[in-house]
Design brief:
Layout: E1 3-7, E2 11-18, E3 32-38, H1 40-50, E4 54-62, H2 65-77, E5 79-87, E6 93-100, E7 103-109, H3 118-123, H4 125-129, E8 133-137, H5 142-155, E9 159-162, H6 171-176, E10 179-180, H7 184-191, H8 197-203, E11 210-211, E12 217-220, E13 225-228, H9 241-254, H10 259-273, H11 286-293
Parallel strand pairs: 1-4, 1-8, 2-6, 4-5, 8-9, 9-10
Antiparallel strand pairs: 2-3, 6-7, 11-12, 12-13
Helix pairs in contact: 1-9, 9-10, 10-11
Keywords: ATP-binding, Carbohydrate metabolism, Cytoplasm, Kinase, Magnesium, Metal-binding, Nucleotide-binding, Potassium, Transferase
Pfam families: PfkB
Protein name: Ribokinase
Length: 297
Amino acid sequence: MGKIVVVGSSSIDLVVTSPKRPIAGETVIGETFHIVPGGKGANQAVAAARAGARVEMVGAVGNDRFGDMVLDNFQKQGVSATYMKPVTHKSTGIAHIVIAEGDNSIVVVPGANSEVDRDLVDRAKEAIKAASVVLLQLEIPLDTVIYVADLCKKSNVPVILNPAPAKLLPSDLIEKVTYLTPNEHECRAILGDCGDVEEILKRYPNKIILSEGSQGVRYFDGDRFVRVPALSVDVVDTTGAGDTFNGVFAVALAQGLPLKQAIRYGCVAASLSVTKLGAQGGMPTMEEIRKHVGDGH
């Protein structure tokens, strides 16, 4: 298996747990507070590394304590940070996360992630062109995402685009990426389509891999709809479940597994990830994933 390259965001998550979510103007007493590494790109990189892949992270952090924490975490997790750009004029990105009532609410401040630009991609170009799979998200500038997708298309490198946070995407970008991994809300937002979700999946066979939370994943294989189930688990924190899916899905594809089996690996990993606190806290190893994969049916 070659290397997974992630071009994306790195941040620090400021996580509060609370029995209820405050409404506008309300103050509530929370239960716990944690400072943990996050960012969709970094989460996906760590998920892939924990599942046994060699991973290269391309991104940016500020010249501050949070930036040091991000880079230290990559070192601990075995993620190569050769192409992590230090930025002096912006702070490291942060995500403010409230976990309450069985779900999470997130405010993201991109900070240095807005500096993940074409110049940085050019520095990492040879690594990207040699990758088995490239992972992208939308917490960095859209122009950069388009630039990477174009480079990968020309180099025949498969691309997974996790379109979050969702925005309307140019049709040529959708065409160039190999797989899109939205949830239903994101699926409608990136296409500007409020129609029936099954009709949308039919238009993008084997491309839109639709995440449906505890229901698992659904896609259209050209002949029929395929549902790949999630595991039934006790949920502690759903933060990072989608990132875990994407990271492990990429690893399984890089190992040469067929699409349905690669999705199954991703679903199992995402299910296991929600059993512990923090986006990266519950990310499983490949050994743990294989124990639960079964025969993939």
